[in-house]
Design brief:
Blueprint (H helix, E strand, L loop, with lengths): L1 H24 L9 H21 L4 H25 L5 H10 L1 H10 L1 H4 L11 H20 L26 H28 L2 H26 L4 H8 L3 H13 L5 H28 L5 H29 L5 H14 L3 H19 L4 E6 L4 E5 L5 E8 L2 E9 L5 H70 L4 H29 L2 H19 L5 E5 L8 H22 L3 E9 L2 E8 L12 H12 L3 E5 L7 E8 L8
Parallel strand pairs: 5-6
Antiparallel strand pairs: 1-2, 1-4, 3-4, 6-7, 7-9, 8-9
Length: 653
């Protein structure tokens, strides 16, 4: 209902303004007509009422705002219609237009402040003030409706039309004094109620009420000045009194989230300005060209040329004014989601896009400080950090990947919904960043492990095999020198040299075996695992192997599978007390599936991960595979399940 009344208020104001332009062009107007007062009141209160009714749970306030605007618009429409002098009900239209403006205008200062901002009185103690306001409105309406047109403070003379219910007593000083006193008292109490709310409120609500109090007080002051300033300037000043209260509501809504109407306010503001420009351009061209038949056509063509570029510019301007950026929140959210989906490189998300996400969230929520705190301790900030913060957890796949931090302030339901949507989109970006950083750490660990392995090999070769071979070479040279002179001594040296050479060979083989077991190259993964099972099997442990269809595998894959199986068998022998261990492996699409299951006592109940389990998982993850250690379906024993990719990505150089 509030929305419909608001639209009717704007429509009646537009039609009334158009009729006024027609009457002024034909010299049928009255001076002063106060048409601008009614037109601005219809536009300002009608638009505000319609906007609030669409986005707020408050119902009384938009109804009252729209009713004030509708009263102003109808007063202008009826009065200008009567001035046309062509209708059968001119007398009724003029009578309605002569008094409808008064109660609607007074309500903006005497009734509306009592109910702002939620539609209810501050407390039951203010009920007498509400009754007084209603009485004052009724008194104003009755006074203007019963006062003869020629006895009004601004006489209304329209041909031979007179007030059909005019009573001279209604214009007496006594009646005027009583009505004025009631009105002033009602307005004073209404403003006092806003001041009382303001004193008792805190935070964002206090700022909202401050603007509403300023708007109500400005309305009273400007309206009083309109009667003190000589005409025709007084008419313009009085008309300006229609602006403060709707303007104050707009500021409270935009800057301090009153009624949560920011999106609709941006649209309403845009089309209000467009409407005003269209009317002004059309009326100006028609007035300049006069009554010629081509004037409306020319005016329409000019309006069409001006409207489209003006609409685009106003859309960006109002969005920047209301939301802080040229896009409205819905469009900005959609573009942010598209940008996240289009960014396939996680490193790009980590280094470039995440700071943009934080800045965009800060703009969409108009927060002076926004930060994303990642689960790994990283922080991306925008703005100066305040003392009080609101924290929103960021979740992806059921796990918390970070926290969104914003400057603390009350938020409406619509803003909370927008924040939730932003948090979900930010969680996607944060998850990508964490994956990127984890991948970087994994690569660094692999490189570090490889370098440690090379260092160990260098030490083994330099401190072990190297000196041994060097000593053996010296002994061989000594034997060579003694062969001619003392064959027996040379033979004795060579007899000691051979076992040492065999030892050096065994040491080299051990180092080579540590790098890659020769059985993998000689027998393949299936044969190497069977040989491994033979070594682990014993009187109390049976090892069963089923690796018949694995085929040829990449070197890195069969080595990782061999090492994991070896570690799993060692764990079963050392810790499980199992009687049987079964090793299976098979191709599963692009994966090699390996499983080592035993019937032992199972893993520790405390879930602690030993070095062996961590080593198996690290070997699988190094190849972008997966290793899971758990209990079988019947709960007996332990199962090591491994998936290794059969197609390996080439590492970056």
């Amino acid at each position: 209902m509030g929305y419909i009344m608001g639209v009717l208020a704007v429509g009646s104001g537009l039609v009334g303004a158009a009729l006024h332009a027609v009457n002024a062009a034909a010299d049928r107007g009255v001076e002063p007509s106060f048409w601008l007062l009614s037109a601005l009141g219809a536009f300002a209160f009608g638009i505000t009422g319609a906007v609030v009714s669409t986005r707020s749970q408050v119902r009384r306030i938009p109804l009252l705002l729209s009713a004030i605007g509708l009263g102003q618009g109808l007063a202008l429409l009826f009065r200008e219609y009567a001035l046309l002098g062509e209708g059968p009900l001119d007398w009724l239209a003029l009578w309605l237009g002569s008094w409808l403006w008064a109660p609607s205008y007074i309500a903006s200062a005497a009734l509306l402040p009592l109910l702002l901002p939620d539609g209810f009185l501050p407390s039951s103690r203010w009920r007498p003030a509400l009754v007084l306001s209603i009485v004052a409105l009724a008194a104003q309406a009755s006074s203007w409706a019963l006062t003869p047109y020629d006895l009004q403070d601004v006489p209304l003379v329209v041909r031979d039309l007179g007030n059909p219910v005019g009573v001279a007593a209604a214009a007496s000083p006594v009646v005027f004094g009583v009505v004025s006193a009631l009105t002033l008292l009602a307005v004073g109490l209404a403003l006092a109620s806003v001041a009382a709310r303001w004193r008792e409120s805190t935070g964002e609500r206090r700022q909202q009420l401050k603007w509403l109090l300023v708007g109500g007080a400005a309305t009273v002051v400007i309206f009083a000045l309109g009667f003190l300033v000589p005409q025709p300037a007084g008419e313009v000043v009085a008309a300006l009194a229609a602006i403060p209260v709707p303007a104050a509501c707009g500021v409270a809504a935009l800057r301090h989230r009153l009624w949560d109407v920011d999106l609709v306010v941006s649209v309403g503001l845009r089309y209000t300005i467009l409407s005003a420009v269209v009317i002004a351009v059309y009326a100006t061209i028609v007035a300049v060209l006069g009554a010629s038949t081509g004037a409306p056509v020319v005016a329409t063509a000019v309006v069409a040329l001006v409207l489209l570029p003006l609409h685009s510019w106003l859309q960006r301007w109002t969005n920047r004014l209301v939301h802080g950026e040229p896009d409205d929140p819905s469009t900005a959210l959609a573009r942010l989601g598209e940008q996240l989906e289009a960014t396939s490189d996680p490193a790009d998300v980590a280094d470039r896009l995440l700071p943009q996400v934080v800045a965009r969230i800060s703009g969409l929520l108009q927060s002076p400080y926004t930060a994303i705190r990642l689960a790994d301790g990283g922080v991306v900030e925008h703005g100066m950090r305040p003392e009080d913060l609101d924290q929103v957890p960021l979740r992806y796949g059921g796990a918390e990947v970070g926290t969104l931090e914003l400057a603390h302030r009350p938020r409406s339901r619509r803003e909370a919904g927008r924040l939730d949507l932003l948090a979900r989109q930010a969680a996607v970006a944060v998850h990508s960043v964490l994956l990127t950083r984890e991948a970087r750490r994994s690569r660094q660990l692999v490189v570090a492990a490889r370098e440690e392995e090379r260092r160990r090999l260098r030490w083994d070769l330099h401190d072990g095999v190297g000196p041994s071979i060097a000593a053996l070479a010296l002994q061989a040279e000594t034997a060579r020198d003694l062969v001619a002179e003392d064959p027996a001594a040379a033979t004795e040296i060579l007899d000691r040299l051979v076992p040492r050479l065999n030892g050096a060979v065994a040491e080299v083989r051990a180092i080579v075996h540590e790098l890659r077991p020769p059985t993998l190259d000689e027998l393949g993964l299936a044969g190497a695992v069977r040989e491994l099972a033979t070594r682990f099997a014993g009187r109390d442990l049976q090892v069963e192997v089923d690796l018949s269809d694995v085929g040829e595998l990449p070197a890195a894959v069969d080595l990782a599978a061999y090492r994991i199986v070896s570690e799993a068998l060692a764990n079963a022998v050392r810790h499980s007390g199992a009687a049987t261990v079964r090793v299976t492996a098979k191709r599963d699409g692009p994966w090699l599936s390996v499983e080592v299951a035993d019937d032992g006592r199972g893993i520790d109940a405390d879930g602690r991960v030993g070095v062996g389990l961590a080593s198996m998982r690290a070997r699988a993850e190094e190849l972008n595979g997966r290793c899971v250690v758990g209990a079988p379906a019947d709960g007996t024993g332990t199962v090591v399940s491994v998936l290794l990719p059969l197609i390996l990505e080439e590492e970056p150089r």
